Amino acid sequence: MIMKNNSLYQKIYDLIEVIPPGKVATYGQVARYAGMPRDARRVAYALHVLPEGKRIPWHRVINREGKISYAISRNGSDNLQRALLEEEGVVFNPHDAIDLQCYQYNFE
DNA sequence: CAATTGACGCCCA
DNA sequence: TTGGGCGCCAATT
After folding, report:
1. pLDDT (tens digit per residue) in A38-80
2. Quick one: pLDDT at residue A93?
3. How many angstroms is C1' of C9 away from CA of A5?
4. Which nt sits closest to A49, CA to C1'?
5. Does residue A2 have a pLDDT over 70?
6. I need a surface site. Which of A45, A56, A79, A101 has the fewest CB within 10 A?
7. Cα A56 off chain centre by
8. H runs (alpha helix) in A1-108
9. Contact, A39 vs A70, CB < 8 A?
10. Residue A108 and residue A89: Cα distance in Å, rounded?
11. pLDDT reading at A1 higher than 50
12. Which nucleotides of C are covered by protein (CB under 7 A)?
């Protein structure tokens, strides 16, 4: 059984796991608290290769614009992300963005 | 081994 | 106030 040492990503998963419903965090923010500032792309990749067994609130991670990061490789799961957020009470602006001032979670 | 990619973010014109 | 361009760096080609 392949057990790759993804301790770096484990920290990312751990942080995302504590984001409460109705709150969100940005990729850069998670990266910063994971000990890898300026490396938001690692957070993105960590979610890209996220094992399905790991049930973490991945949908509560968005980009700095307060929007969903759309990507072709996601094959429509980005649409699901928006639905999940709206289900938690997150409201999207006419510009398809949310107000980070209100919804951004502070890890402390 | 070198080049490209990417669920991103910041800087500057 | 916006938009275009560059940097970050593991993983993939």
Report:
1. 999 999 999 999 888 889 999 999 999 999 999 887 888 899 9
2. 93
3. 17
4. B7
5. no
6. A101
7. 9
8. 7-17, 27-33, 40-48, 77-87, 100-103
9. no
10. 23
11. no
12. 7-12
How distant is the alpha carbon of residue A104 from its chain centre?
Answer: 11
Q: Which two tokens stand for residue A15?
A: 């942080």
Structure token pair of residue A18: 């504590």
Q: Could you tell me the two tokens for A40?
A: 């938001």
Any idea which residue has 């910063």 for tokens? Answer: A32
Q: Which residue type, as a one-letter code, is found at position A4?
A: K
Looking at residue A76, what is its pLDDT?
85
| Closest nucleotide C1' to the C-alpha of A39 | C8
Q: Which nucleotide is nearest to A42 (CA to C1')?
A: C10
**Residue listed under structure tokens 């409201």:** A91
Is A64 within 7 A of strand B by CB distance?
yes
Burial (0-12, 13-18, 19+ Cβ within 10 Å), A33: middle
